[in-house]
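Appendix B. Raw example, untouched.
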Amino acid sequence: MKQAALLSLTDPYIKRDGGTLRTRAMIGALEKCGFDVECVYPTGDASRRNEGRPAMGRLASSRQAASAAKRHFLPLPTELGQRSTALGTEVRRLEPSLTVTSVLSQAQFVDPRNSVFWLDFMDIWSEFGRREADRRTGLSKMASRTQSRWLRARENKYCNAAHVVTAAGWSDWKTLVAHGHRDAVWLPNPIADDSFETVPRASGEPNVAGLIGNFEYWPNREAYRTVIDSWLPRLVDSGWRVVVAGSGSDALEQRPGVIALGHVDNLNDYYGQIDVTLAPIDLGGGMKVKVLESFSRGVPVVGTAFAFDGFPEEVRALGITVDLAEPDLTGLQDLIRVDPTSPVLQQFTTSAFNAKVHRILADVT
């Protein structure tokens, strides 16, 4: 059996957020193409699904504090921070015929002379850094801009070395093409085929807007801050309530008109409680999986232009675009449900993802 190494920031089976969703989907697609896949992440050990092999201990709190200080000036990972003798040794030990990484700072461990090199962009770090620099001031702004320019140079270097370049977000794919990487392929994040089915609205009070995400991830906490500062007063004045769900949501600052559910085990139960999804996003990158999840259950989405940025125009048209700071939220009651079986959404199924990975590999292996 052919050997593939997939480099990741973390064990993709511990958490179920957008980034690990893509990693798990990639593992599944590669296995369907006949690869024995080992996921290697910087805890000093390789992790294969269900094998439960031990990983190195967690970082001490002092190192976490140092990481937070670093992020104040450099918002994204660095190659120095990702340098790992154990990780590099593990990749070489595997002698993979295919090496895939969605982490730019880990591309240093790939030898394209001995392995097909697949560079996958969950988001484009240089663009993320540029947007983050626009929000900052002083030395932090200058440092973020410098890192963004440096990251673009590294992106170009590794794209030129890679045999395959893919991007999760539509606009990120267009950016790669504009930077001269014309063979880049748009490979959107998938969700399970059976997720594309309308979730009936449960009985209960009407006019409920939902916000769901992993609130341990700081851009999602910023999105919640936008909701309670700018969106919530407008919603309450129009007779709406907000339900917030996902990891860490029960630890967020509470306001009248907001109900926090915490972690939800069944997404359909959550989507059955709401009439519209809120996506007040201007940070992060790539494709917003929560927008797709909402569409796939038939729930309309009201969000910023950036929330829909990872989708092609025909999918963006399914949502309602509003301004981040001054959103026009009138007329939400008139929103109609999305048809999850629409052809424009079928390109986001797991089966479509698997088929596209198969076509990509057919050209290079």
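End of appendix B.
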